[in-house]
Amino acid sequence: MTARNCPECNGLVASTIDICPHCGYRFGAEPKSTQRRGVNPYNSLVWSVVGLIFVPLFGLISIIFYLMSDGRWSAGDAAEAEKYGRWSIQFVKIPILVFIAFIVIFLVFILIMGLSNAA
Ligand SMILES: [Zn+2]
Fold first, then answer.
1. Which of 10, 22, 41, 90 holds its CA 20 to 30 A away from the CA of 98?
2. Judgement on whether residues 53 and 106 belong to the same structural domain of the protein
3. The whole model's pTM is what?
């Protein structure tokens, strides 16, 4: 026998029953738009927050794209949500890589300077 969780009370309900015995929730009654809402898979808030720490300007732009992506996702427009989500990630990925590259170059420079001073 298969069972599923009730979205209202999270109780286990046999798949053969359409009404939750715990709270009376009706399965299959919710409209499609709310079913596909869920979590935006193109969500990149982590990237945006990291971006805010490393490169605030790009992090801010990234968050704007993130919010636009989430807005499109809530409206049921997955294609647009994906587009804005990608932009949101791109806007922090590149500056963070550049920032890390600069730190690495800087550290190598310091190291070389230190070695040449010691010699
Ligand atoms: Zn229930």
1. 41
2. yes
3. 0.54
Distance from first CA to last CA of the chain, Å, rounded? 77
Listed residue (86, 41, 98) closest to 62, CA to CA: 86
Q: How confident is the model at residue 96 (pLDDT cuts 50, 70, 90)?
A: confident
**65 confidence band (pLDDT: 50, 70, 90):** very high
Residue 56 belongs to what domain range? 41-118
* Overall number of domains in the chain: 2
Amino acid at residue number 84: Y
Average pLDDT rounded to a whole number, residues 77-93: 88
- Residue 2 C-alpha to ligand 1 middle, in angstroms? 16
Ligand 1 geometric centre to CA of 6 (Å) = 5
Residue 35, domain member (yes or no): no
pLDDT at 50 over 70: yes
3-state secondary structure of 6: coil
Q: How far is the CA of 50 from the centre of ligand 1 (A)?
A: 39
- The verdict on 85 and 114 lying in the same domain is yes
